[in-house]
Amino acid sequence: MRCAILGDIHANLQALEAVLADARECGCLEFHVLGDVVGYNAKPAECLRIVRDLPGACVLGNHDQASSNDSLLAGFSANATASIAWTRQQLSVEEKAWLAALRPQRQIRNTTLVHATLDSPLSWGYVRTNADAEMSLACQSTPVCFYGHTHVVKAFEKGAGEILLFKNEEEGIQLSPRQKLMINAGSVGQPRDGDPRAAYMIHDEESGGLWLRRVSYDVEAAAAAIRAAGLPERLATRLSKGE
Ligand code: ZN
Questions:
Q1: pLDDT above 70 coverage of the chain, percent
Q2: Do 202 and 25 contact (CB within 8 A), yes or no?
Q3: Cα(10) to centroid of ligand 1, in Å?
Protein backbone atom coordinates (compact mmCIF):
# COMPACT_ATOMS: atom_id res chain seq x y z
CA MET A 1 0.00 0.00 0.00
CA ARG A 2 1.36 3.37 -1.01
CA CYS A 3 0.20 6.08 1.41
CA ALA A 4 0.41 9.86 1.35
CA ILE A 5 1.26 11.38 4.75
CA LEU A 6 -0.23 14.86 5.04
CA GLY A 7 0.74 17.12 7.94
CA ASP A 8 -0.74 20.48 9.02
CA ILE A 9 -3.06 21.25 6.10
CA HIS A 10 -4.42 24.28 7.98
CA ALA A 11 -7.36 25.15 5.74
CA ASN A 12 -5.13 25.82 2.73
CA LEU A 13 -7.35 24.52 -0.05
CA GLN A 14 -4.99 25.41 -2.91
CA ALA A 15 -2.12 23.54 -1.27
CA LEU A 16 -4.29 20.54 -0.37
CA GLU A 17 -5.64 20.17 -3.89
CA ALA A 18 -2.15 20.40 -5.41
CA VAL A 19 -0.80 17.80 -2.97
CA LEU A 20 -3.68 15.38 -3.56
CA ALA A 21 -3.23 15.62 -7.32
CA ASP A 22 0.50 14.91 -6.95
CA ALA A 23 -0.10 12.01 -4.55
CA ARG A 24 -2.68 10.40 -6.83
CA GLU A 25 -0.32 10.76 -9.77
CA CYS A 26 2.32 8.96 -7.67
CA GLY A 27 -0.06 6.06 -7.05
CA CYS A 28 -1.09 6.77 -3.44
CA LEU A 29 -4.22 4.85 -2.45
CA GLU A 30 -4.51 5.97 1.18
CA PHE A 31 -4.13 9.45 2.65
CA HIS A 32 -3.22 9.80 6.32
CA VAL A 33 -3.62 13.21 7.90
CA LEU A 34 -1.50 14.25 10.91
CA GLY A 35 -3.95 16.79 12.35
CA ASP A 36 -4.57 20.52 12.07
CA VAL A 37 -6.89 20.26 9.12
CA VAL A 38 -8.14 23.77 10.00
CA GLY A 39 -6.71 27.03 11.38
CA TYR A 40 -4.59 29.88 9.91
CA ASN A 41 -5.86 29.73 6.31
CA ALA A 42 -9.24 30.61 4.86
CA LYS A 43 -10.88 27.41 3.65
CA PRO A 44 -11.53 25.27 6.75
CA ALA A 45 -14.89 23.77 5.78
CA GLU A 46 -13.70 22.98 2.25
CA CYS A 47 -10.58 21.21 3.51
CA LEU A 48 -12.49 19.35 6.22
CA ARG A 49 -14.98 18.00 3.67
CA ILE A 50 -12.16 16.78 1.42
CA VAL A 51 -10.23 15.14 4.29
CA ARG A 52 -13.36 13.52 5.71
CA ASP A 53 -13.95 11.70 2.42
CA LEU A 54 -10.37 10.53 1.86
CA PRO A 55 -9.56 6.85 2.29
CA GLY A 56 -7.22 6.82 5.31
CA ALA A 57 -6.99 8.06 8.88
CA CYS A 58 -6.91 11.52 10.41
CA VAL A 59 -5.74 12.39 13.93
CA LEU A 60 -6.68 15.38 16.07
CA GLY A 61 -4.55 18.55 16.04
CA ASN A 62 -4.60 21.41 18.53
CA HIS A 63 -6.27 23.75 16.01
CA ASP A 64 -8.88 21.08 15.22
CA GLN A 65 -9.65 20.67 18.91
CA ALA A 66 -9.80 24.42 19.61
CA SER A 67 -11.99 25.07 16.55
CA SER A 68 -14.47 22.34 17.48
CA ASN A 69 -15.72 23.94 20.69
CA ASP A 70 -16.13 27.32 22.39
CA SER A 71 -13.50 26.89 25.09
CA LEU A 72 -11.29 29.78 26.17
CA LEU A 73 -8.21 29.96 23.93
CA ALA A 74 -5.00 29.62 25.91
CA GLY A 75 -1.50 28.97 24.60
CA PHE A 76 -2.16 30.28 21.09
CA SER A 77 -0.48 33.27 19.44
CA ALA A 78 -2.61 36.34 18.64
CA ASN A 79 -2.83 35.37 14.96
CA ALA A 80 -3.74 31.78 15.78
CA THR A 81 -6.38 32.98 18.24
CA ALA A 82 -7.90 35.26 15.58
CA SER A 83 -7.95 32.47 13.02
CA ILE A 84 -9.51 29.96 15.43
CA ALA A 85 -12.24 32.43 16.44
CA TRP A 86 -12.98 32.97 12.73
CA THR A 87 -12.83 29.23 11.96
CA ARG A 88 -15.43 28.51 14.65
CA GLN A 89 -17.85 30.72 12.73
CA GLN A 90 -17.19 28.93 9.44
CA LEU A 91 -17.87 25.36 10.57
CA SER A 92 -21.28 23.74 11.00
CA VAL A 93 -22.25 21.93 14.21
CA GLU A 94 -21.82 18.67 12.35
CA GLU A 95 -18.35 19.61 11.04
CA LYS A 96 -17.25 20.59 14.57
CA ALA A 97 -18.55 17.25 15.85
CA TRP A 98 -16.44 15.47 13.22
CA LEU A 99 -13.32 17.34 14.40
CA ALA A 100 -14.11 16.75 18.08
CA ALA A 101 -14.42 13.01 17.48
CA LEU A 102 -10.93 12.67 15.97
CA ARG A 103 -8.57 10.60 18.11
CA PRO A 104 -5.18 12.05 19.13
CA GLN A 105 -3.28 9.04 17.80
CA ARG A 106 -3.94 6.17 15.45
CA GLN A 107 -2.13 3.03 14.41
CA ILE A 108 -2.66 2.00 10.80
CA ARG A 109 -1.20 -1.47 10.31
CA ASN A 110 2.48 -0.99 11.22
CA THR A 111 2.56 2.83 11.31
CA THR A 112 1.62 5.27 14.08
CA LEU A 113 0.15 8.73 13.43
CA VAL A 114 0.11 11.59 15.95
CA HIS A 115 -0.02 15.37 15.75
CA ALA A 116 2.23 16.36 18.67
CA THR A 117 3.87 13.66 20.87
CA LEU A 118 3.14 10.05 21.80
CA ASP A 119 4.04 10.45 25.48
CA SER A 120 1.33 13.05 26.04
CA PRO A 121 -0.58 13.59 22.78
CA LEU A 122 -3.16 16.02 24.18
CA SER A 123 -0.61 18.28 25.90
CA TRP A 124 0.43 19.57 22.45
CA GLY A 125 4.15 19.60 23.23
CA TYR A 126 6.63 19.88 20.36
CA VAL A 127 9.17 17.28 19.21
CA ARG A 128 12.14 19.52 18.47
CA THR A 129 15.04 18.06 20.43
CA ASN A 130 16.53 14.61 20.97
CA ALA A 131 15.10 14.62 24.50
CA ASP A 132 11.58 15.39 23.21
CA ALA A 133 11.93 12.63 20.63
CA GLU A 134 13.21 10.01 23.12
CA MET A 135 10.20 10.65 25.40
CA SER A 136 7.88 10.04 22.49
CA LEU A 137 9.84 7.09 21.03
CA ALA A 138 9.64 5.34 24.41
CA CYS A 139 5.86 5.16 23.85
CA GLN A 140 6.10 4.05 20.23
CA SER A 141 5.34 0.41 19.42
CA THR A 142 5.66 0.54 15.61
CA PRO A 143 8.84 1.03 13.52
CA VAL A 144 7.64 4.38 12.18
CA CYS A 145 5.61 7.19 13.69
CA PHE A 146 4.68 10.20 11.57
CA TYR A 147 3.99 13.43 13.44
CA GLY A 148 3.33 17.11 12.72
CA HIS A 149 2.80 20.28 14.77
CA THR A 150 6.19 21.97 14.13
CA HIS A 151 5.65 22.28 10.34
CA VAL A 152 9.30 21.33 9.73
CA VAL A 153 10.55 18.10 8.16
CA LYS A 154 12.70 16.27 10.70
CA ALA A 155 13.51 12.72 11.80
CA PHE A 156 14.74 11.08 14.99
CA GLU A 157 15.92 7.50 15.46
CA LYS A 158 15.59 5.78 18.82
CA GLY A 159 18.99 5.74 20.47
CA ALA A 160 20.65 7.77 17.70
CA GLY A 161 19.06 11.20 18.00
CA GLU A 162 18.25 13.41 15.05
CA ILE A 163 19.13 11.92 11.68
CA LEU A 164 19.22 13.29 8.16
CA LEU A 165 16.66 11.25 6.24
CA PHE A 166 17.09 12.68 2.77
CA LYS A 167 20.60 13.56 1.68
CA ASN A 168 19.05 14.53 -1.63
CA GLU A 169 15.43 15.64 -1.34
CA GLU A 170 14.68 14.51 -4.89
CA GLU A 171 15.49 10.88 -4.10
CA GLY A 172 13.53 8.42 -2.03
CA ILE A 173 15.11 6.35 0.74
CA GLN A 174 14.63 2.89 2.14
CA LEU A 175 13.52 2.54 5.77
CA SER A 176 14.78 -0.45 7.72
CA PRO A 177 12.25 -2.32 9.89
CA ARG A 178 15.02 -2.54 12.52
CA GLN A 179 15.02 1.23 13.02
CA LYS A 180 12.50 2.96 15.25
CA LEU A 181 11.85 6.33 13.68
CA MET A 182 9.82 9.41 14.47
CA ILE A 183 9.37 11.41 11.27
CA ASN A 184 7.84 14.85 10.79
CA ALA A 185 6.27 14.86 7.33
CA GLY A 186 6.33 18.66 7.00
CA SER A 187 3.32 20.89 6.40
CA VAL A 188 0.95 20.98 3.45
CA GLY A 189 -0.67 24.31 4.24
CA GLN A 190 1.89 26.41 6.11
CA PRO A 191 5.50 25.19 5.68
CA ARG A 192 7.94 26.87 8.07
CA ASP A 193 11.33 25.78 6.78
CA GLY A 194 11.85 28.58 4.26
CA ASP A 195 10.49 26.58 1.33
CA PRO A 196 7.00 27.88 0.48
CA ARG A 197 6.04 24.78 -1.50
CA ALA A 198 3.56 22.39 0.12
CA ALA A 199 5.40 19.47 1.76
CA TYR A 200 4.20 15.91 2.32
CA MET A 201 5.60 12.38 2.28
CA ILE A 202 4.83 9.17 0.43
CA HIS A 203 5.30 5.94 2.36
CA ASP A 204 5.28 2.57 0.60
CA GLU A 205 4.57 0.10 3.36
CA GLU A 206 5.61 -3.07 1.53
CA SER A 207 8.97 -1.85 0.24
CA GLY A 208 9.73 0.55 3.11
CA GLY A 209 10.22 3.33 0.56
CA LEU A 210 9.83 6.91 1.73
CA TRP A 211 9.78 10.06 -0.37
CA LEU A 212 9.58 13.74 0.54
CA ARG A 213 7.50 15.67 -1.97
CA ARG A 214 7.48 19.46 -2.38
CA VAL A 215 4.61 20.70 -4.50
CA SER A 216 4.22 24.20 -5.93
CA TYR A 217 0.72 25.61 -5.62
CA ASP A 218 -1.12 28.90 -6.11
CA VAL A 219 0.21 30.74 -3.04
CA GLU A 220 -1.25 34.05 -4.28
CA ALA A 221 -4.77 32.59 -4.38
CA ALA A 222 -4.41 31.20 -0.85
CA ALA A 223 -3.13 34.60 0.36
CA ALA A 224 -5.99 36.41 -1.42
CA ALA A 225 -8.51 34.15 0.33
CA ILE A 226 -6.94 35.03 3.71
CA ARG A 227 -7.26 38.76 2.95
CA ALA A 228 -10.83 38.38 1.65
CA ALA A 229 -11.76 36.63 4.90
CA GLY A 230 -10.35 39.52 6.94
CA LEU A 231 -7.80 37.29 8.68
CA PRO A 232 -4.48 38.80 9.93
CA GLU A 233 -2.25 40.02 7.07
CA ARG A 234 0.75 38.14 8.48
CA LEU A 235 -1.02 34.84 7.76
CA ALA A 236 -1.06 35.79 4.07
CA THR A 237 2.52 37.10 3.79
CA ARG A 238 4.14 34.19 5.62
CA LEU A 239 2.92 31.70 2.98
CA SER A 240 5.17 33.07 0.25
CA LYS A 241 8.19 32.97 2.58
CA GLY A 242 7.56 29.51 4.00
CA GLU A 243 7.63 30.73 7.58
ZN1 ZN B 1 -0.12 23.25 12.86
A1: 100
A2: no
A3: 7
- For ligand 1, the distance from its centroid to the CA atom of residue 62, given in whole angstroms, is 7
Q: For 69-119, what is the HEC assignment?
A: CCCCCCCCCHHHHHHHHHHHHHCCHHHHHHHHCCCCEEEECCEEEECCCCC
Distance 186 CA to ligand 1 centre (A): 10
Distance 151 CA to ligand 1 centre (A): 6
Q: Averaged over 14-25, what is the pLDDT?
A: 98
Range of the domain at 220: 2-240
Average pLDDT score, the chain: 97
This prediction's pTM: 0.97
DSSP state of 58: B
What is the CATH number for 147?
Answer: 3.60.21.10
Q: What's the CA-to-centroid distance between 150 and ligand 1, angstroms? A: 7
87-124: string of b/e by CB count within 10 Å (b at 16+)? Answer: bbebbeeebbebbeebebbbebeebbbbbbbbbebeeb
Within its chain, how far is the Cα of 76 from the centroid? 17
Is residue 115 within 8 Å of 62, Cβ to Cβ?
yes
Q: How many CA atoms lie within 13 A of 4 on its CB side?
A: 29
Domain count, the chain: 1
CA of 101 to the centre of ligand 1 (A): 18
Determine which helix (DSSP H) or strand (DSSP E) holds 222, and give its type and residue range.
Answer: helix 219-228
- The residues, any chain, with a CB within 8 Å of residue 168's CB and separated by 6 or more, are none
For ligand 1, the distance from its centroid to the CA atom of residue 63, given in whole angstroms, is 7
CA of 98 relative to ligand 1 center, distance in Å: 18
